[in-house]
Specification:
Layout: E1 16-17, E2 26-27, E3 30-35, H1 39-44, E4 55-60, E5 64-66, E6 69-72, E7 80-82, E8 84-90, E9 106-114, E10 116-117, H2 118-126, H3 132-135, E11 141-143, E12 147-148, E13 159-164, E14 167-173, H4 181-188, E15 198-201, E16 209-210, E17 216-221, E18 227-232
The structure holds manganese (II) ion.
Manganese (II) ion binds next to loops.
């Protein structure tokens, strides 16, 4: 039986992200997103960073949008926000790994946008409900072409920025991450068997805000490929 014959409906395309210098794509399976990982962003959201432990939400792999896309303003919101983030791509399996072992699990880094229906997220937050409507929706995860970790000697001191229509809205350095990449990987691996295909969105700096149809969003991290998204009117 051919693979197509095994299933009742046609199999959807595998969500994936290109990697610089590689002709093969990085296949995405899970998208872990870290909440409140820059103190200044937590403050602007009216909350504090929880120093006890990081927390997460997930997006489905099908939320992946290629960089450079033009997508419609999403349904169900009047307060659609950008969140510029460093994305870490896992390339080796790991369970209960130490901080020291964590870097060996990283395959690549990339620039990403955690697009958010802020009104729905905040409503859910205030009612103690899950954030899915605000975070885990279609076309809500934009990832730039990634760079292999082997080609990224260090992320120290690198600036992360986001512009809307060329105006700078977010600007910070990756050193400002509250939970560092090795801490996040070690912590997540206490709860999940991390495997190649797992992406980690590491959280956004201060300066999040709304975007509307016609806006061009561009995110940069020094030394990595930029991420770009254009919005068109709602369907
Ligand atoms: Mn985020």
């Amino acid at each position: 039986m051919s693979k197509a014959e095994q299933y009742l409906f046609p199999i959807a395309d595998q969500p994936s992200v290109p990697v610089l210098g590689q002709h093969r794509l990085y296949p995405v399976s899970r998208i872990f997103c870290v909440g409140r990982n820059y103190a200044e962003h937590a403050k602007e959201m009216g909350v504090e960073v929880d120093r006890e432990a990081p927390f997460y939400f997930l997006k489905p792999a099908t939320a992946i949008v290629p960089t450079g896309s033009t997508i419609p303003y999403p349904p169900g919101t009047t307060n659609y926000h950008y969140e510029m983030e460093l994305v870490v791509a896992i390339g080796a399996s790991g369970f209960k790994v130490s901080r020291q072992e964590a870097p060996s699990l990283v395959y690549a880094y990339g620039a990403g946008l955690d697009m958010t229906r802020r009104d729905l997220q905040l409503e859910a937050r205030s009612k103690g409900r899950p954030w899915d409507l605000g975070k885990a929706f279609e076309q809500s995860a934009v990832v730039a072409t990634m760079t292999r970790a082997a080609d990224v000697p260090s992320l120290d001191g690198r600036r992360i920025q986001l512009r809307v229509n060329r105006e700078v809205k977010q600007s910070a350095v990756l050193d400002d991450l509250v939970w560092k990449i090795d801490e996040l990987i070690s912590h997540l691996s206490r709860y999940y068997h991390l495997v190649p295909g797992d992406l980690i969105f590491t959280g956004t700096p201060a300066g999040v805000g709304p975007v509307v149809a016609g806006d061009i969003i561009e995110g940069t991290i020094d030394g990595l490929e930029p991420v770009r998204l254009t919005l068109r009117p709602a369907e």
